[in-house]
Design goal:
There is one protein chain. The chain is mainly alpha-helical. It contains four helices and no strands. It has one domain. 86% of the residues lie in helices and 0% in strands.
Length: 100
């Protein structure tokens, strides 16, 4: 049960860190999500990808593969760390521009 709660929490964190990254000039690496964003806009595209992710997580649970959620959590935790690094680097660039 804890892995499921962490999974949902990580989806929310990924959603927000991705949108913050976009605001700071970052791009989307996934071609699928980039296409969703192109068709619907950033918030809706990323939101749809999160709904899809939660749906896949639900399928894992429904088919008795709930242990996969724990492994997927590691992937999303790494992805969020990546997003935060991009945000920090972009923030440093913005600060450098403002100081010159």
């Amino acid at each position: 049960m804890l892995a499921i709660q962490v999974f949902v929490y990580l989806q929310v964190l990924d959603f927000f860190t991705t949108l913050i990254g976009f605001r700071l000039g970052a791009g989307e690496a996934s071609p699928f999500i980039a296409k969703l964003i192109h068709l619907t806009g950033p918030a809706v595209g990323v939101g749809l990808s999160k709904l899809l992710g939660v749906g896949i997580g639900a399928i894992c649970l429904a088919t008795g593969r709930g242990r996969l959620i724990g492994w997927i959590n590691y992937w999303y935790a790494g992805l969020i760390v990546w997003n935060l690094c991009i945000i920090l680097l972009a923030g440093d660039r913005i600060q450098a521009i403002l100081n010159h």
